[in-house]
Design brief:
Blueprint: H1 5-25, E1 34-36, E2 43-47, E3 71-75, E4 77-86, H2 87-91, H3 99-122, E5 140-143, E6 149-152, E7 155-156, E8 163-166, E9 175-188, H4 194-199, E10 201-214, E11 220-223, H5 229-240, E12 256-259, H6 264-271, E13 275-276, E14 280-281, E15 289-292
Parallel strand pairs: 1-9, 7-11, 12-15
Antiparallel strand pairs: 2-3, 4-10, 5-6, 8-11, 8-12, 9-10, 13-14
Helix pairs in contact: 1-3
């Protein structure tokens, strides 16, 4: 194959098609637990996300609830992946073997938010959030039905693999995915480029800017206790009884349970099987969607 502007443009078009086609078709899971908040600068600064009050009947003047002065900053990070193709491989018409590589790069780029969000979720019991407590903790500041100080928990310790209850029906989510620059495929394929002249290689790279951070702890519950009916019910109850500062219920309803592969069958037997104990109806059947996440292993 002769190497000229037309052939190089055709190669880039083919690689881009493979990259974008795979990027757009990959199933991801981060949106189950993370709200996407685009960024236009080096960082985003978030107010305390649980300061929103409930509605009240309007008598007299409005009651203004100031959002807390406490803020939480998520700084964007840069990420890249780069490949090279030897000039001789193009000359020998071997470019076809790189289309699957470009497609895999597209898949990796699409799945990258998963790789940011779920490792953060795994370690969030050691990461402090806006109220000064660890994100998954047994003693978050909470409130009773009269707005009095109380303790709220979204964590149960134990020796087993962790499982997570998630309410993904709210606009806000337990975590934040913050994209700044979309991951795109960029060529460095001018025959006069130094990498071509000195190394005989054409270079294609993918780069983007983004990060993940903490959102509303109230919308997620982590348990390391044995996944059984009693512990599931305790976690579900803990989430659904959390209140706002004014004493009103937050109306949290866990919709999904996220488990590592090791708990997949346990979760399905507990929460999907119609019959248990030799023929009894399973009151928990279909009460929540089971999703196994490899990144939680």
């Amino acid at each position: 194959m002769d190497i000229n502007a037309n052939t190089l443009r055709g190669i880039y078009t083919g690689l881009s098609t493979a990259y974008n086609g795979r990027f757009d078709s990959v199933q991801t899971y981060y949106s189950t637990v993370a709200m996407t908040v685009p960024s236009t600068t080096a960082m985003n600064e978030y107010p305390r996300l649980d300061d929103l009050p409930g509605f009240r009947e309007w008598f007299g003047d409005r009651v203004v609830h100031d959002l807390s002065a406490q803020t939480y900053i998520i700084r964007n990070r840069e990420f890249e992946k780069t490949i090279s193709i030897k000039r001789s491989q193009i000359e020998d018409d071997q470019i076809g073997i790189f289309a699957p590589v470009a497609a895999q790069m597209g898949q990796d780029a699409a799945e990258f938010p998963d790789q940011l969000v779920f490792p953060l979720m795994k370690k969030a019991e050691t990461v402090k959030c806006y109220d000064g407590q660890y994100f998954f903790d047994g003693d978050h500041p909470g409130y009773d039905e009269n707005g009095g100080a109380n303790i709220a928990s979204n964590f149960a310790d134990g020796a087993g693999p962790a499982w997570y209850l998630i309410d993904d029906s709210q606009f806000m989510k337990p975590f934040v995915y913050q994209p700044r620059k979309k991951f795109t495929l960029t060529p460095m394929q001018n025959p006069d480029d130094p990498n071509v002249f000195y190394q005989g290689k054409f270079v294609w790279g993918v780069d983007g800017r983004c990060n993940a951070g903490l959102g509303l702890w109230q919308l997620a519950y982590k348990s390391k206790a044995t996944l059984n009916e009693a512990n599931f019910t305790a976690a579900y109850t803990a989430m659904t009884t959390i209140r706002r500062r004014d004493g009103s219920v937050l109306n949290i309803r866990p919709k999904k349970i996220l488990v590592p592969p090791a708990l997949r069958m346990t979760a399905k037997k507990l929460l999907e099987a119609e019959l248990v104990n030799g023929g009894e109806s399973n009151v928990l059947a279909k009460s929540i969607e089971v999703i196994d996440i490899p990144y939680l292993a």
